[in-house]
Amino acid sequence: MDSREENVYIAKLAEQAERYQEMVEAMKNVAQLGTELTVDERNLLSVAYKNVIGARRAAWRIISSIEAKEVERNENESKITKVKHYREKIESELTTICNDVLSVLDSHLVPAATSSESKVFYLKMKGDYLRYMAEFSTGDVRKEAGNKALAAYKSAIEVASNDMLPTNPIRLGLVLNFSVFYYEILNSQDEACTLAKQAFDDAISGLDKLTDDAYKETTLILQLIRENLSLWTSNKGNEDDGDKDDEDD
Question: For 110-150, what is each residue's pLDDT tens digit?
Fold first, then answer.
């Protein structure tokens, strides 16, 4: 068993044991070999980081909500300070994870990508983790993360539109997350709805040409897009934290 096979095997063991940080480290070793990942390897890397970041994104939302309620209730300063410091601790962890992913993407995965699917997958992933940074950041840091995320998503959309069918799950997952970015980070409901609706309509017209497995995967993402469209059009002008991206799968 060579080092690549060994790391992939360790990553799969770590996934079964739900030890996701170790899964991340194993797949980083594979990514740093400088060759294009297989679909299986690519998915292992994505799942590893998704689980590492997902728990902390959820924790940040909970603690931020508690902090807002403590401030609203005008609780004593000691409590508010403790909650604030705890939130900042989670934000520091989130920043470390996002920077780690972005470094692997920029240094290894994006340069080594040759297929259109790989390019879109990694550019989408780059946009996603920059979006996550923008979620909890403020001021210039949020603005910079937002601008870089927009550029990554746009680059991915350009490749996907030219080289991939409207029913391709990777292309649809990109549209799903890009539209959430428009809505949540840029506060652009019209852009979010236009992008999502166009992708939904284009994909619906091609569903009859899909195999059973592809149909299932495609319709799952279309359902998330439709749920977002319904939410955004029914809550115009109101903030809502119920938007779906592909981290909710």
Answer: 999 999 999 999 999 999 999 999 999 999 999 999 999 99
Q: Give the DSSP per-residue string, the chain.
A: --HHHHHHHHHHHHHHTT-HHHHHHHHHHHHTT-SPPPHHHHHHHHHHHHHHHHHHHHHHHHHHHHHHHHHHTT--HHHHHHHHHHHHHHHHHHHHHHHHHHHHIIIIIHHH--SHHHHHHHHHHHHHHHHHHHHH--HHHHHHHHHHHHHHHHHHHHHHHHHS-TT-HHHHHHHHHHHHHHHHTS--HHHHHHHHHHHHHHHHTTGGGS-HHHHHHHHHHHHHHHHHHHHHHHTTT---S----GGG-
Which pTM value belongs to this model?
0.92
CA angle in degrees (0–180, nearest 5) for 5-8-12: 135
